[in-house]
Amino acid sequence: xxxxxxxxxxxxxxxxxxxxxxxxxxxVCKLKKSIYGLKQAPKDWHDKFDxxxxxxxxxxxxxxxxxxxxxxxSGKGVIxxx
Length: 82
Known about the structure:
Keywords: Nucleotidyltransferase, RNA-directed DNA polymerase, Transferase. It contains one helix and five strands; from the N terminus they run ββαβββ. With 82 residues, it is of the alpha+beta class.
């Protein structure tokens, strides 16, 4: 799930063991997406999830920011709890 998060800042990391490019051992990798292990990965993923769910007509519960709901005129609906 965290791989779907969008980074808000530039983050660089050392080349992973086993994937070091010959002749470029001193270069680093610039991340384009969030990865597991980043401190901000959960927040980046939640921000993207929040944007997508809210853009699809769900409402954010004000008492618990991890609960989303969407109901139709007949009262049938969906509740998403993270």
